[in-house]
Fold this protein.
Amino acid sequence: MTEHYGDYEVESFLGKGSIGKVFLARHRRIGRRVALKTVHLETKFEDEEDRTEFYKRLQREAELCGSMQHPNVVTLYEVGYDGDLVSFLATEYVDGETLLARLRRTRPLPLDEAIGIATDLLRGLAYAHSKGIIHRDIKPANILLTSDGRAKIADFGVARPLNSSLTATRSLVGTPNYMSPEQVKTTPVSPRSDLFSAGAVMYEMLTGVKPFAAPELSGILYNVVNLVPPRVTETNPSVPDAIARVVAKLLAKDANQRYATADEALSELELVDHARAAALESGELGLLTVDHGDDTTPLSTIVDYDPTPSPLRREVEPPTFSSVAVVLVAPLLA
Ligand code: ADP
């Protein structure tokens, strides 16, 4: 028997999300296909207050997402309710793959593709920020790639249960690699926190390695706060230095040292990329410079690049960090 959620008939299972299963489903009256995110909490809430807070957040986030309409943001179509509580979210179905899956197949990504995805990501963020919405969890798993090469940001701040340390630890797997230092330190988050995460995603697309990777969670957290990763060009010399510079600025530890807005980062990336395209066309790459006002950055010459991941990670001793790591991070999943 076909499973139903409101007017939606389940067609297939897409994946396991943090708040329940995600299905490909079809609206039985208008035929529209959606990604249906169901709310099934495996985690027991500590108390009624916790449970109420979770559903309040889900409702609030649904309202925020419902106000967004942009080609680089996954559209929320409808919210299902069980009584007063959200029971499913019907969102635009993206027939493609996540950036996470894409990176599993190819890393680093070809330069044009990485820049295209980064541009879409910054466009989507600029739009969300203009609506006062901060994503807080930009990572490859939350970036969906359409079959025609467009990137869309998914999972805008959908609440996550954070009531047990077990859940917190499990939800963290793979995630803090893209968190900003201010999130790790549980200091206030701003739109610039999303820019840091976008920088970490760009870094990985361009080099094939995560900028703050470490064997232990405590090491990742320590690296996010303290480690300045090697310049993108050190790992992948075929990336123009001007693009490596954009990534480095996005990854500034101090939020005030990053671009002020996603729009500003986008303009810079587009400027650099247009200069690169023009240089490629005229065959002058390596001779050109990009004008940054009082500073000029030479575009690096394209050289042969061996994509074999190198053991470039600067070893960082995680100090007495591990015992506090989960405590530190649990509030971040709010
Ligand atoms: P959560 O972020 O809540 O953990 P995800 O967004 O990761 O859940 O969803 C789980 C899986 O469902 C994803 O890996 C992806 O394969 C699939 N998925 C989620 N949203 C969509 C969508 N809009 N279109 C197509 N597939 C999706």
